[in-house]
From TrEMBL:
InterPro entries, sorted: YjbR/MT2646/Rv2570-like (IPR058532)
SUPFAM superfamilies membership: C-terminal domain of RNA polymerase alpha subunit
Organism of origin: Streptomyces liliifuscus
Organismal lineage: Bacteria, Bacillati, Actinomycetota, Actinomycetes, Kitasatosporales
Region of interest (Disordered), residue spans: 1-28
Name by which UniProt lists this protein: Helix-hairpin-helix domain-containing protein
Ranges of Polar residues composition bias in the record: 19-28
């Protein structure tokens, strides 16, 4: 079952995202102070999506309803338990892309195609998911990796213990000093 933890993990993996409590039991996720997703105390997730994306969600989920501000459509609202984790990840990212500054959105879209061994001097051995996770937040060099702690690296969706170990070895081999 999809939960606030899944929503939080997905939203906070996107660059520039902040989490805010907007009332008792209510969480919202913003990028540069623009809300793109929220979860109300009633267990309904709100996704601020462009009209075409909102129409897709409405067609795929019978329990979804159009989210409006006054009479202006701004997205969809549906019970979080009625959407699987993969679908939630996709739609949260689409909502984020619709509200992120152009530079951040372009950086994240470029990271989608990042291949292991082809981004800056990041080692190929860390694999595609870790390479894309790092590129997604603008990290393309070992010097930038050296500025992050192990905990900060592990907090990135796609960067696991093996990638952290390999990055640490690459940092030492190239004369960089890992943080912490």
């Amino acid at each position: 079952m999809t939960s606030l933890a899944q929503l939080r993990r997905t939203a906070l993996s996107l660059p520039g995202t902040a989490e805010r409590s907007t009332g008792p039991g209510t969480k919202s996720f913003t990028v540069r102070d623009k809300r793109f997703a929220a979860l109300g105390k009633d267990g309904h997730v709100q996704l601020h999506l462009p009209a075409a994306d909102a129409d897709e969600v409405l067609a795929a989920h019978p329990t979804a309803e159009r989210l409006t501000r006054g009479t202006t459509p701004i997205g969809v609202r549906l019970p979080i338990g009625d959407i699987n984790g993969q679908q939630l990840n996709h739609w949260v990212r689409r909502a984020w892309l619709a509200h992120a500054p152009k530079r951040l959105a372009a950086q994240a879209q470029a990271a989608d195609t990042a291949a292991a061994g082809e981004v800056g001097d990041l080692p190929r051995a860390i694999g595609g998911p870790a390479t894309r996770a790092l590129a997604n937040v603008g990290i393309t060099t070992l010097a930038q990796v050296a500025e992050l702690s192990e905990a900060e690296l592990l907090a990135m969706h796609g960067v696991g213990p093996k990638a952290v170990r390999l990055l640490g070895e690459a940092l030492v081999a190239t004369g960089h000093r890992p943080k912490g």
